[in-house]
Design a protein that fits this description.
101 residues, mainly alpha, elongated
């Protein structure tokens, strides 16, 4: 029998912070990797702002409800966009795998 530990909840911000997700290529793919890192960092910052806004809403410390709603909306939209880009990249990779030479 194997010892299976419980699954702990991790936020998107914590996942993006982990190193090693994107490795630089020595064959000239550095520019793409840098753009991808930049986009992921931007999504991460929006997620952190959203989590802060949600925390402020929960504790009643929100200063401007409109700004909190905007931060949450931006984070949601950026996450959806990132997921769609990921899905398109996976589909392109699969299509390349199906290509016969």
């Amino acid at each position: 029998m194997s010892n299976i530990s419980g699954i702990s909840g991790t936020s998107t911000a914590e996942l993006v912070k982990q190193k090693g997700w994107i490795e630089e290529s020595e064959s000239g793919g550095d520019a793409f990797a840098e753009h991808l890192k930049s986009a992921l960092n931007e999504v991460n910052e929006l997620q952190i702002e959203s989590e802060t806004a949600i925390g402020d809403l929960a504790t009643g410390q929100v200063k401007d409800l409109h700004q909190a709603a905007l931060a949450i909306g931006k984070a949601e939209t950026s996450m959806k966009l990132m997921l769609e880009i990921r899905n398109k990249a996976i589909n392109a990779y699969k299509e390349l795998g199906r290509t016969q030479l």
